[in-house]
Amino acid sequence: MNALMVLVPLTIAMGAAGLLAFLWSMRAKQYDDLDGAAERILLDDEDGSV
Description:
With 50 residues, the chain is mainly α. Helices cover 68% and strands 0% of the residues. It is built from 2 helices and no strands. It has helices spanning 2-27, 36-43.
């Protein structure tokens, strides 16, 4: 029973930390344009120089 008194708040704190990290990444636009960078690396060489 004493283990639950420690583990339940610890689990809630870890879940809240994960949620805050997810919300931060959404505000920092980490998930916008996931394919753009992959396509830009293929199309970046427009001048033909190698």
